[in-house]
Amino acid sequence: MGIVVLLLALLVVAGVVARSAQLVTAGGWLAEPLPPGSHEASVLVRYLRRHVLHRRIGATVGVVVATVAGIRLYGELNIGIGTRSPLADILFCGLAGSIVGAMSAETFRLSDDRNDVRAASLAERTPLVPVRLLVLSRALTITSCLGAVAILVVARDAGPLVIAAAGVAVAGVAEATRSAITSRPRPVMTDRARWVDDRMRWFAQRAVGNLQLAAAWLLAGWVVSKTGDTDHTPVDVLQVVTVLGCLAATVVHLLRASPRRPRDWVAPQ
């Protein structure tokens, strides 16, 4: 049974990761309308492949951690949030690993030394992440933290609070990374280099914003799942539906953050 559960979890996580692997054959979409063989296109393709690699590594590490921890610490493997521990949940760790891995592809911006800039471009850069997306991710994170505190007080279960703390850490990294993408000084550069930089920043803002919301949905789903069983069937059904909805939203925003061509993508001229 454990092997079957492991295979199912691997299929779910692999489906999320493999969707981004379309980049290998169609990785030049971010460089349109430039020809695929141009230097700018090559730079952007390598940048997107970095995201694919980090996402794969993160998902793999998450599944391995869940497998080892589940067998060694709990003697069981689980799929679907709300089990004994998130460390024994392959689906939770796989999705969380994919989110953290994908976000790590952009955290290099946090180490940029602002003092090294001798001359900076004054060109305006407008944040491209929709305000409603940011408000929703922050609201979900705050609400989940309050729910985790309530569970600690009522049920004496500190597990959700630990997960909430990890979620807050991920949200903090996302906020700092998005700020660096938007406000980091950009040195004076050639038109071609500025064009590549604009495309990279556009994708980075979109990816980090969706990753932050995916993490918030995953956190909310775990907290809701730990509210405990009741004797009222309608309430239990609502709990299950809510958790499944949070998982679905996590996958949706994880896919939206992937290095694949957006459906509404129109290459600027």
Concise account of the structure shown:
The protein is 68% helix and 0% strand. With 269 residues, it is mainly alpha-helical.
Low-confidence stretches: 1-5, 117-122
Mean pLDDT: 79
C-alpha Rg, in Å? 20 Å
The ordered string of helix (H) and strand (E) elements is: HHHHHHHH
Shape: elongated
Number of domains: 1
- Range of helix content: 55-70%
**What structural category characterises the helix and strand content?**
mainly alpha
Strand content: under 5%
Measured between the Cα atoms of the first and last residue, the distance is: 54 Å
The count of helical stretches stands at: 8
Q: Biggest β-sheet, characterized?
A: none
Q: What is the β-strand count? A: 0
What can you see in these coordinates?
The chain is an all-alpha fold. The protein contains eight helices and no strands. Helix 3 runs antiparallel to helix 4 and helix 5 packs parallel to helix 7.
